[in-house]
Design a protein that fits this description.
By secondary structure, the protein is mostly helical. It folds into two domains: 51 residues; 227 residues, MetI-like (MetI-like fold, Orthogonal Bundle). The chain is 75% helix and 1% strand. The protein is built from 13 helices and two strands, in the order H-E-E-H-H-H-H-H-H-H-H-H-H-H-H. Strands 1-2 form a two-stranded antiparallel ribbon. Helix 2 packs across helix 13, helix 4 packs across helix 7 and helix 7 runs antiparallel to helix 10. The longest helix is centred in the first third of the chain and has 51 residues.
Length: 308
């Protein structure tokens, strides 16, 4: 009987190995299209841009002369880079915190049992699936000196509004407001998914303990959705550093470079000045900046993120 058991065990082991071996290749087969796309359109362009960044050349000949780190030196010592970096940081600080708090607040409201809940979710998500170019054109008309916004403000207060997109003080806040509205729905859906994964038993326990709404949120909801909050913070920061379409469509970097962000400056180097080497160097500098910020965000918030 013992020998039979040993043989049976060997048969089971062999069948398991053959099972995994058989399905391992099928997994690679299904992954191949996605891996091919990632390799072709993400990985290879990175190495290609790395080579371009140490050469000088125009649109027709990227590898005309090897210049080493001269392109990086040019970018770092150029005042336009620092203008664009300041504008980008201004945009990030104005957009990311507002998007996080507003989207969380709206998600909490939508997580309640109210009539027409599905309709509200669709309304908040519509701007996300709408083309940013189309939205930028609409908001450009709204922000005109005699547009809808100034007419409404003048009707309520009697004070004429500014020429939003032509004023160096108000141009960037105008783009920030539009960007918050545009990206709010995506973060709302993410937060809503996180809120719906909080076990109801935790709220019942907090209610039995006599905790109010604020204590329940701070001690139950907030820790439970901390991974969701961390994800939203990281993704919002990365996307905000890469803002381009709003600036290109609404202000063209003006007035007086007050809305020229890093990606728009990169576009000018590549497609206006035809300095592909400098543009590639700027792209790598921006990559290092985003990587460093993401790393420090993860490091300083890791203790506050609770995975269940």
């Amino acid at each position: 009987m013992i020998d039979i058991k040993k043989n049976d065990e060997k048969k089971v082991v062999i069948s398991k190995k053959s099972f995994f071996k058989r399905y391992e290749w099928s997994a690679y087969f299904y992954l191949f299209p996605a891996l091919a796309i990632i390799l072709t359109f993400h990985v290879l362009p990175i190495f290609y841009a790395m080579v371009i960044s140490v050469h000088s050349g125009g649109m027709t000949n990227y590898f005309k002369n090897f210049v080493g780190l001269s392109n990086f030196e040019y970018v770092i010592t150029n005042k336009h880079f620092w203008y664009s970096m300041w504008n980008t940081v201004y945009y990030v600080l104005g957009t990311v915190p507002a998007q996080i708090f507003l989207s969380l607040f709206i998600a909490i409201l939508l997580n309640q049992k109210i009539k027409g809940l599905e309709m509200y979710r669709v309304i908040y998500f519509l701007p996300v699936i709408t083309s940013v170019n189309a939205i930028s054109i609409v908001w450009k008309y709204i922000y005109q000196k005699y547009g809808v916004l100034n007419s409404f403000v003048g009707f309520l207060t009697g004070i004429p509004g500014p020429d939003w997109l032509m004023d160096t003080t108000w141009a960037m806040p105008a783009i920030i407001i539009m960007s918050i509205w545009k990206g709010l729905g995506y973060n709302v859906i993410i937060f809503l998914a996180g809120l719906q994964n909080v076990p109801p038993s935790l709220y019942d326990a907090a209610k039995i303990d006599g905790a109010g709404r604020w204590k329940t949120f701070w001690n139950v909801t907030w820790p439970m959705i901390s991974p969701t909050t961390f994800f939203v913070m990281i993704m919002s920061t990365i996307s905000s550093f890469q803002v381009f379409a709003q600036v290109y469509m609404m202000t063209g970097g003006g007035p007086q470079e007050s809305t020229t962000v890093v990606i728009y400056y990169l576009y000018q180097l590549a497609y206006v000045e035809h300095k592909m080497g400098r543009a590639s160097a700027l792209a790598f500098i921006l990559f290092l900046i985003i990587f460093a910020i993401t790393y420090f965000q993860k490091k300083f918030t890791a203790k506050r993120v609770h995975y269940t």
